[in-house]
Amino acid sequence: LQAPLSWIDQFPRDWDTAPYLGTNGYLPNPRPRATYAAMVSYLDYSVGQLRAALEKSGRGGSTLMFVTSDNGAVDAVGGTDRTFFHSNGPLRAGKMSLYEGGVRVPAVAWWPGEIAAGSASDQVAICWDVFATVAELLGQPAPKTDGQSFLDALRGRAAKPRTLYFEYPEAGGMQAVRMGNWKFIRPALTK
Fold first, then answer.
1. pTM over 0.90
2. Sign of the torsion angle spanned by Cα atoms 10, 16, 19, 24
3. Inter-residue contact 41 to 9 (CB < 8 Å)
4. How far is 99 from 74, CA to CA, in rounded Å?
5. 20 to 30 A from 24, CA-CA: which of 63, 67, 122, 180?
6. Do the Cβ atoms of 185 and 99 come closer than 8 Å?
7. Which strand (E) or helix (H) includes residue 7?
8. Alpha carbon distance 115, 154 (integer Å)
9. How many CB atoms lie within 10 A of CB 109?
10. pLDDT digits (tens, 9 = 90+) for 20-68
């Protein structure tokens, strides 16, 4: 966990009842909760700075900015505290799991003139879909992956059905398939 000290100091000292001593991944940290909050806040601030720079340069209207995560919230690693922050809301589990808390993450896109401000989509997508989406946007052939473009969803069209398959060999091994509102999970494959 790393963040500028000036950002860490913006969060209450009483959040951190004990320092993190480096016993479970990551380096030791005297204020792990405040540092985690500072990291998230600083990322948000930095994305805002990028957006402002694009607008100031006159390139905002021709730029698609897309921000997401590769997995759900971590817990008990490096002093992070998923319960304290209610990071995954009601979703089960987190990072290193194929339950929804491990794979369902927010995605935010900004594209003036193409994406309506305040709009939302129910489009199901996965990180490798980004490659297919960018390829379609550029009029290029998509790379040879299982990715599918979600460019229509970015432009406000109806979500397309999407079946996802996951395999995760770590943490006991898991497989999952998500189709519509259904999800099948095979946990603990190597135990």
1. no
2. negative
3. no
4. 13
5. 67
6. yes
7. helix 5-8
8. 6
9. 17
10. 999 988 899 999 999 999 999 999 999 999 999 999 999 998 999 999 9
